[in-house]
Amino acid sequence: MSINPALIPSTPSVKLLIGGRFVESATTEWRDVINPATQEVLAQVPFATDDEIALAVQSAKEAFKTWRKTSIGTRARIFLKYQQLICENMQELAAILTAEQGKTLPDAEGDVFRGLEVVEHAASIGNLQLGELANNVATGVDTYTLMQPLGVCAGITPFNFPAMIPLWMFPMAIACGNTFVLKPSEQDPMVTMRLCELAMEAGVPAGVLNVVHGGERAVNALCDHADIKAISFVGSTKVGTHVYNRATLAGKRAQCMMGAKNHAIVLADANKEQSLNAIAGAAFGAAGQRCMALPVVVLVGEAQTWVPEIVEKARALKVGSGTEQGVDVGPLVSRAALDRVSSLIEQGIAQGARLELDGRLPQVPGYETGNFVGPTIFSGVKPGMDIYEQEIFGPVLSLVGVDTIDEAIEFINRNPNGNGTAIFTQSGAAARKFQEDIDVGQVGINVPIPVPVPVFSFTGSRASKLGDLGPYGKQVVMFYTQTKTITERWFDDSTVAQEVNTTISLK
């Protein structure tokens, strides 16, 4: 629904960031930012006009002329300062995130912290953006490479990690010498904007970082703009596929991290208590709204008898507002998300899965209007059921039973997605077999959410990813730079060629 914020003077409006200034949009199209635990309208976010998006890109293009020549040391010191400012404002950032997205405060701090790790990595750009040199590849000839920035880059980020994922993108892009236009999720842009304020305070020059808001029209404008050289995306498979196809057709680099259906195998020899705790945390943390959540557990052999204990672990989790102490599972981000998850639970029942724990309509005193679904567990889940085929993005766990580890690996490999997977076992042989035979990009061994630290890259695979290079780590430095190879020869009087050489070789 379009609302003019002037009609509600008490409600703050989210600003655009263009050319180093936080500016009020001239748009007539706005969206409410709603607290998912209370339905309170926190702010209103503008859908930027075409002219505002073009101005943000032009601002980034102009800033690139000088930023690309800024020394590596200067860039690194900005991100060292930025790291300090994020640490100093951690509690404020977490509070904003919880209010607009719904996560528990500890989980919100974790969201910010995982992004902070990438900022710290960006401060190491002097070691990351090194070229190569070969001396005397032919007589008097040297060859070396330069890793040069591309120009204006763009990022499109999802609602579920409004701190971490923007911090996956713009710090590394900017540290590599590019300028950036960010489009955060319109559902929860406030913590992203606070992070951008801190980036400006840390010394990011005017025009190097710009922010526009909007929906499909803004996404298409970024994909189509001739001055944008690369786009990074995290979100749904439907939108990610659209972004990748449209951006690459326009000649851009693109990396799109998309949907998932992560599985874990549990062998009977696994440490039972540790495994149960890990499963419950990974399946129901953040109300299941993670692309690296654990929505499917494959119980092998005698581990199939663990179902009652899994249910009890889930039943003990507390559902409530993310601001309340002791809460484990906060609300879903929106009414639409609540309706979708509830509908999929109903479909699971109708399609023959056994509902072991029903989390619908939990009682949350004081937050009766919140978008809450409690931990929900199905057993007897099979391929073809909607709760298995779709990414639910809610606190719903599907349990599958098989007899052997080979069946479990084959079952997982048949699923088209490849974001993450895990095995719980005390057998080194089983773990080695799993990591070798599983066709998934990120593997955990007794680790339920195997997202690597930033010195490595996020390596989701298959239908979960489009593009060859992943976010952060070494791969993203390659994504945000162009390798230029220089071959040079210098002559003195004794080495000057005395005749014309018409061959392709260097002599």
Percent of residues in helices comes to: 25-40%
Report, as a whole number of angstroms, the end-to-end distance. 71 Å
Largest pleated sheet = 7 strands, mixed
Looking at the overall shape, the CATH architecture of the largest domain is 3-Layer(aba) Sandwich
Enter the CATH topology name of the largest domain: Aldehyde Dehydrogenase, Chain A, domain 1
Strand order in the sheet with the most strands: 14-15-16-13-12-18-19
Q: Give the number of domains.
A: 2
Keywords: NAD, Oxidoreductase
InterPro entries: Ald_DH/histidinol_DH, Ald_DH_C, Ald_DH_N, Aldehyde_DH_dom, MeMal-semiAld_DH
Organism: Advenella kashmirensis W13003
GO molecular function: methylmalonate-semialdehyde dehydrogenase (acylating, NAD) activity
